[in-house]
Design a protein that fits this description.
By secondary structure, the protein is of the alpha+beta class. It contains 13 helices and 18 strands. Helix 1 packs parallel to helix 7 and helix 9 runs parallel beside helix 13. 42% of the residues are buried.
């Protein structure tokens, strides 16, 4: 649905091949996808005097960004410097190169470091309000050179959905998620595992006012500015392929018509996490689950690959998490991916074990878990640590929030429960950060004494795998076949950027 003002083309039409009359509508810039990359591109294009159109195949805006915490990481930004924090370009470069693990394109990395503060100021001048996420350190603070304790991690300010007027219900929001609480408050209020400590009166007031933060808040801020500038937004419009002329991309073919682009097309439609075929090709992890909406299915990558674009693997990254899918509470409700690595997994009275009952990494440091997931036992012909299991006891249920439920709540029926003993032995937490995991023999014996075993109601308690029905059949088959065709034509890197679960997602 197009509910915004339409703009005429201001750019010069091309002179060869297809004419502008071949398209139903023509703009300077066609942006595919409405996550942060898409909305930021559309806003920047308009500020440059161009006429953009934003295409989103889903019924609501936000894409994968709406499912995120909404964090923005920029070193040497003007907000931190004004607040008295110290930072230098060399420290930011050192930290980024450490995080890149020798897999980055250094030219692009330097461009991000140098232009990031400029971009932040630009969007602030456009009307977006940002704030420092106090208490949120660099992921590798104290480990990586150049890391800092505070100041580089940012969020947008709180914003009310009602600021969007008739568009207030057009932003995608993950179900059962406290989108009115930002990351700074999560720390101050005791974390996501201590929901009982959160001020109920504050939360109720924010919900009444439809206050938004996290990724939903980021998108709301940007959409507010797009609407203020009359930028054309088209929901429910799926891009099918790129239109070309003499080797140049000149537009987009969609299921709702053809859109010409005199200045360019931006593919800002995310990666492939919700496309099982691509996830298998790039991740190679059994039971891979998507923590993003089903629309994040690699269509932009496919469109680029069909024109000869190459995809480069980034194997060492922070995009793989352990987690599981939470079933819907109502018929037809989509599964919701729960990132255990930043919630339940680091709490007392929980451990993670593989199918042999062995712990294999330090649960309190999620970055340490990921490399262990790729271990493969050639003799047993299986991944050593997948599937794996989150195990917790009654002390955890009584003392912490499981999937955002109040302390002491009943364990959901889809969690496998086995009564074995009263307590999870204290020794199960003896090998936390800075020490080695125990041997399989010691953890297997300890595992048999646990009270509650997490897993789906499936054989041997495996966490629920993504089902083939989680994406609309036509989309899934089309994407899989097109991807297979592209992969067969050229040598592709074996992996891109993933997402992981107690399976992997």
């Amino acid at each position: 649905m197009d509910r915004s003002k339409k703009h005429s083309t201001s750019g010069k039409p091309w002179t060869q091949g297809e004419s502008a009359m071949s398209f139903d509508e023509t703009y300077d810039v066609v942006v595919i996808g409405s996550g942060i990359g898409g909305v930021a591109t559309a806003l920047a294009a308009r500020e440059a005097g161009l006429s953009p159109v934003l295409l989103e195949k889903a019924a609501k805006l936000g894409g994968g960004t709406s499912f995120s915490m909404g964090g923005i990481w920029i070193g040497c930004n003007h907000l931190m410097l004004a607040a008295g924090y110290k930072d230098t370009r060399n420290d930011v470069l050192s930290y980024m190169r450490f995080v890149g693990a020798e897999e980055t394109d250094d030219e692009r990395l330097v461009a991000y470091v140098d232009r990031g503060p400029e971009a932040l100021t630009f969007f602030e001048d456009c009307g977006i309000r940002f704030r420092i996420s106090r208490g949120l350190t660099d992921h590798y603070f104290g480990v990586a050179p150049g890391s800092v304790a505070e100041g580089r991690c940012l969020n947008t300010d709180f914003i009310a959905a009602t600021d969007l007027g008739e568009w207030q219900d057009s932003i995608l929001a993950p179900r059962d998620t406290p989108i009115e609480v930002n990351s700074e408050e999560l720390f101050n209020w005791g974390g996501i595992a201590n929901i009982n400590n959160w001020p109920k009166d504050v939360l109720e007031e924010r919900r009444r006012k439809k206050i938004r933060t996290r990724g939903v808040g980021v998108i709301t801020h940007f959409v507010k500015q797009l609407l203020a500038r009359g930028i054309t937004i088209k929901l429910g419009t799926r891009a099918i392929s790129l239109a070309t002329e003499n080797g140049r991309v000149v537009g987009v073919v969609t299921d709702k018509g053809r859109f010409g682009a005199t200045r360019g097309v931006m593919l800002a439609c995310g990666a492939y996490e919700s496309n099982p075929a691509m996830a298998q090709a790039y991740e190679g992890l059994p039971g891979f689950l998507s923590m993003f909406p089903p629309t994040i299915d690699g269509d932009g990558m496919i469109m680029g690959a069909e024109l000869g674009a190459r995809i480069r693997t980034i194997r060492n990254n922070l995009a793989v998490f352990l987690g599981f899918n939470i079933p819907g509470k109502h018929p037809g409700e989509e599964l919701l991916f729960r990132i255990v690595g930043i919630s339940e997994m680091f709490c007392p009275h929980t451990i993670v074990v593989n199918r042999d009952g062995a712990r294999f990494a330090d649960e309190t440091y999620f970055q340490n878990m990921v490399p262990s997931l790729r271990h493969y036992d050639v003799k047993k012909h299986r991944h050593t640590n997948l599937p794996c299991y989150l195990i917790f006891d009654q002390q955890y249920i009584d003392g912490f929030s499981f999937i955002d439920a109040p302390r002491g709540s009943e364990v959901p029926p889809w969690v496998r429960v086995r009564i074995r003993s009263r307590n999870l032995q204290a020794s199960s937490r003896s090998t936390r950060r800075g020490s080695q995991p125990p041997s399989p023999a010691s953890t297997a014996s300890r595992g048999t004494a646990l009270t509650r075993i997490f897993g789906a109601a499936r054989p041997h308690g495996v966490l629920p795998r993504r089902t083939s029905g989680s994406l609309p059949a036509p989309t899934r088959l089309t994407s899989a076949r097109r991807w297979a065709r592209c992969a067969s034509r050229r040598s592709m890197a074996s992996n891109c950027i993933p997402a992981c679960s107690l399976q992997a997602g």
